[in-house]
Amino acid sequence: MEWIEKSQPVMVTGATGYVAGWIVKELLERGFTVHATVRNPKDTNKTQHLSDLAASSPGTLKLFKVDLLEEGSFAEAMQDCALVYHTASPFTSNYSDPQKELIDPAVNGTRNVLLQASKTSSVKRVVLTSSCAAIYTDASEVAKTPKGILTEEIWNTTASLSHQPYSYSKTLAEKEAWNLVQGQNQWDLVVVNPSFVMGPSLNPKYSTSESIHILRQMTDGTMKMGVPNLAIGVVDVRDLAMAHFEAGMRKQAHGRNIINGSNTSMLEMAQILHRHFGKNHPIPQKALPKWLLMLVGPLINKSITRKFIQNNIGHIWKADNSKSIRELGISYRSLEETMVDSFNAL
């Protein structure tokens, strides 16, 4: 007998999201019934690609209207589900009130989903989409870790409302999840901690993903003078969807799981794109000097503070993905394949 039965539906929150779409696709192709929660099921700009996927798959899609911040909103969608994927959480660098736009939806949304899981007797496991941002804030911290590499044991202790509030929101939301799992013994929690997600969007025209936004800026001339030499990890959205799938389906999966395909930088990402598409598109191939970023960064985007630039530009970023390979069976695509496919989808 399978640990998760195909006769039971699987719930995916934030189903119109960049990552969630690929998780839904994987589940539908394997014949599962997916209870997909969305803000507005009637907004076909956001949902049509999911309906199209369902039409050509053996699985079944059911859309449910929910409000992330409303307690009890997930009750109908979660009914009879053995497995819940909670991916819905805001990811943006364009905010005016970080508490209201980042922290509250991330923490309260997680709380509402997990409290509902405790009230829904069919639920055996919740897979939470957290982030490497719950492990670290700035690339400069990597060198200070015990082995110069980020691992699942490390927690972010440096983000705050005023410095990298997105990282702060992911840290608080994941901590809330680990607190809530303690109070019951019906369901267990597996956490997925991806690095920066790239790769083709299933709905590029209407995607609000920060990843797609950055890819556009790299290729439409916005960054033609050069890119910030920002140290980051990158994972392909398709590999991340597979990691979620395995985190739900493998009974032995547990704890936090770093999902990272490449220890890299924005400069290397741009150089790959330039090599393939630079003849016809204004893609940068050199880094902006740090002093110039210090001058113009804060003017372009308020999240690019001088502190952010100091702590992230020109550093080395490294994360240990061996647990995901060993326990979830993930094999990662190359950065080249990810960047080329991302651009072609756009």
From TrEMBL:
<dbReference type="InterPro" id="IPR001509">
    <property type="entry name" value="Epimerase_deHydtase"/>
</dbReference>
<protein>
    <submittedName>
        <fullName>NAD-dependent epimerase/dehydratase family protein</fullName>
    </submittedName>
</protein>
<dbReference type="InterPro" id="IPR050425">
    <property type="entry name" value="NAD(P)_dehydrat-like"/>
</dbReference>
<dbReference type="InterPro" id="IPR036291">
    <property type="entry name" value="NAD(P)-bd_dom_sf"/>
</dbReference>
<dbReference type="Pfam" id="PF01370">
    <property type="entry name" value="Epimerase"/>
</dbReference>
<feature type="domain" description="NAD-dependent epimerase/dehydratase">
    <location>
        <begin position="10"/>
        <end position="245"/>
    </location>
</feature>
<keyword id="KW-0560">Oxidoreductase</keyword>
